[in-house]
Amino acid sequence: MAEAHRTTRTDGVAPRAGATRTVRRTPRPAWRNWAGTVAVHPARSVAPSSTEELAAAVRAAAADGLTVKAAGTGHSFTAAAATDGLLIRPERLTGIRVVDRAAGTVTVAAGTTLKHLNQALAAHGLSLANMGDIMEQTVSGAASTGTHGTGRDSASVAAQITGLELVTADGSVLTCSATENPDVFAAARVGLGALGVITSVTFAVEPQFWLAAREEPMPFARVTAEFDQLVAENEHFEFYWFPHTGNCSTKRNNRSQGPAAPLGRISGWIDDELLSNGVFRAACAVGRAVPAAVPGIARLSSRALSARTYTDIPYKVFTSPRRVRFVEMEYALPRDAAVEALRELRALVERSDFKIAFPVEVRTAPADDIPLSTASGRDTAYIAVHMYRGTPYRAYFTAAERIMTAHGGRPHWGKLHSRDAAYLAGVYPQFAAFTALRDRLDPRRLFTNAYLRRVLGG
Questions:
Q1: Are the CB atoms for 333 and 345 separated by under 8 Å?
Q2: Is residue 360 within 8 Å of 345, Cβ to Cβ?
């Protein structure tokens, strides 16, 4: 929506013809991300409801000399979607377009959230193979920044895409798949918004299945000693280490024949809302006010959640509510480097004055063939560090980042990091191919911003 303009005089009298006018503009529509780390005031904001409307908005912005970025729901901690030009909002470009049971695919508008996608799939008796632990992101935003879950055989959102529709810098619309514009398809699945604006995504889906979850505490020493075995024996394995302690919480998800045995309404609320959100938020607030209390809080937090098992449809097992606001940095490491890096991170915390209230999350992914996927070409383990929002985090993140980069780590595109194009070109074998494709599709950098200039180069 273009800025509104109102002509007025300061004395309240209508201006005469040819008189000097005072132009008062309404405030530009602001956009802020979930964590509060990015806020922008674009010159123009639109919420198209169709590919045609979106393409027209891109052409108009180019004609007016405005850069263009598409925003999702703001769950990236980086400024990947920031712009002072045209901001494309997702809220009207939503919904299921095609369900093709014979092909095992579902095509969905790009602004649809993962929550609504999964609810719609469940209504059709279908499911994604895997997903991350929250559902608030749009499908295009989640894919474009490399959002992933954990898995032996599958992990990322982007790796489940079989087709997409992309509006490019000249306003044309490309239909992309493994057989149609395959080079664009390969790269745009994790495209950072640098190649164009995705308007629809086609996912591979399968008949809905049961997923059995087993959650239990486990000592740090045992988890790290048995890490390879735990990954190999489970379809989906992840764990959380609580800094200042030797305690971890583990989760193993595996397919089941059923029957369903979902979490009880009361017990689920106690664990997922009261303890994991309400009590944990209060504990983090205390830790922010009194940092010396954090190690004791960590010891209590690491013992608060007891073992439990349950069986449900996939998205209800993969995901959980995240209501405590935080900032996050995550690095993707070669899988065989994960345990050593985690031990180094623990040693760092123990010898430093850092007070870390949030657990460290560890997940895995198989190698894929997407040029800028964090799992591109190698079996991967992810190590994610968090800090409660409003707590100083830079020193901890910087020290943790030194450990991760020493192991050839790749930063998550949507999470805080300090890497630039020179570093990233050295850890992504297909980096030059991606930037060459960008040069072809967007030579004038319609879709650029400060973040992309840093991570991809000018």
A1: no
A2: yes
Q: What secondary structure letter does DSSP report for 97?
A: E
pTM over 0.85: yes
What's the Cα-to-Cα distance from 265 to each of 261, 269, 271, 272, rounded to whole Å? 12, 6, 10, 10
Q: Are 51 and 165 in contact (CB under 8 A)?
A: yes
Whole-number Å distance between alpha carbons of 92 and 272: 31
pLDDT in tens, 338-393: 999 999 999 999 999 999 999 999 999 999 999 999 999 999 999 999 999 999 99
- How far is it, in rounded angstroms, from Cα 97 to Cα 109? 7
Listing from the earlier edge strand, what are the strands of the sheet with 247-256? 308-312, 210-219, 247-256, 236-241, 360-365, 380-388, 326-334, 410-411
Question: Could you tell me the CA-to-CA distances from 291 to 287, 327, 361 in Å, in that order?
Answer: 5, 17, 21
With contact defined as beta carbons under 8 Å apart, do 359 and 242 qualify? Answer: yes
260 and 254 Cβ atoms separated by less than 8 Å: no
Q: How far apart are CA 319 and CA 191, in angstroms?
A: 24
- List the Cα angle 432/437/438 in 5-degree steps: 95
Burial degree of 193 (CB within 10 A; 0-12, 13-18, 19+): buried
Q: Where are the beta strands (DSSP E) in 55-148?
A: 68-70, 86-88, 96-100, 105-109, 126-127
247-306 pLDDT, tens digit per residue, is 999 999 999 998 999 887 766 655 665 456 667 778 888 888 899 988 888 888 777 777
Cα–Cα nearest to 401, from 410, 388, 390: 410
